[in-house]
Amino acid sequence: MGPSTDQVSYGLAVVSLWAPDEEVTAAFYRDVVGLKLASHHGTSYHFDLGGPLLAVLRGAPHPATEATPERFPVVAFKVDDLERALDRLRVANVATPWGVEEQAGVRWVMFHDPAGNLLEFVELS
């Protein structure tokens, strides 16, 4: 039996991240990144990403091993002003180990959340 000819539309609904201390990590996403908390159920926090949700759940993050490339964000947040987003990181003393990077008119900065998840702010041209 071959693939169906019916079209299916897909969209992103939820991105999940795990953190040993979900309360501290959720506070980071709310206070430093600036996301709006959509709901909180027990040990899970859900943030509004303009449709899709970012879920922060209790657990140990599992970064990729022997990955190519060695560093790539688990989640990249599109921002309209990278400098303002960077200011939020600076105020909270969040390290940006590789600084601002740029390629083909796209600028980004990578950083870690309190659980160690590698994140990125990216400004598209």
Task: Outline the structure in words.
The chain is α/β, with parallel strands linked by helices and 125 residues long. 18% of the residues lie in helices and 35% in strands. The strands form 2 sheets. The chain has a 4-stranded mixed β-sheet with strand order 1-4-3-2, with helices on one face. Strand 6 (100-103) and strand 7 (106-112) form a beta hairpin. The radius of gyration is 16 Å and the shape is globular.
Oligomer: single chain
Helical stretch tally? 2
Residue share in β-strands: 35-45%
Provide the structure class. alpha/beta
Poorly predicted spans:
none
Radius of gyration: 16 Å
Q: Span from first to last CA?
A: 44 Å
Percent helix: 10-25%
The largest β sheet comes out as: 4 strands, mixed
Task: Work out the number of β strands.
Answer: 8
With strands numbered from the N-terminus, the spatial order across the biggest sheet is 1-4-3-2
- Kindly state the mean pLDDT as a whole number? 94
| Element string (H = helix, E = strand) | EHEEEEHEEE
What form results from the Cα inertia axes? globular
